[in-house]
Amino acid sequence: MKRIVIDINIFMDFLFKRNGHEKVAEIFKHCIKGNVMGFSCAHEITTLNYFLSKSNKDKVKVRKIISGIMKRFKVIATDEEILTRALHSDIDDFEDAVIEISAKENDAEYILTGNTKDFKKSIVKSITPEELLVILRNDILEERKNK
Fold first, then answer.
1. What is the DSSP letter of 79?
2. pLDDT tens string 113-146
3. I need a labelling partner for 143 at 20 to 30 A (CA). Which of 23, 49, 50, 52 fits?
């Protein structure tokens, strides 16, 4: 099973139906089925809540969306050790460095993002939804071939 940490822009693409959200939906289906273990950093959940609340005044609906994300994706706690290590990352953007260190600490194979350039210096490989779908399709084909 692939282990991925999901960058906030991927959640935003899906929730706000931005360009490429169909591919993200396909990946999320893999997460729900158990083919992929999806992770989100805790700080991303609070940021998502902020953006959802700005665009939707229905607090009940926003909380239901956030609750759904938390049920389907493992939330990585952001603690002092992760923050300290992120300060020493080669990645310039602190938030991205926190995602990188969180991914490393949780043995993620990939950081799923729409902005791979932000993670060029990452110790965990970053990939786009399109790239992950190719990997997953190849894994499925390989699995079928070995049966």
1. -
2. 999 999 999 999 999 999 999 999 988 788 777 7
3. 23
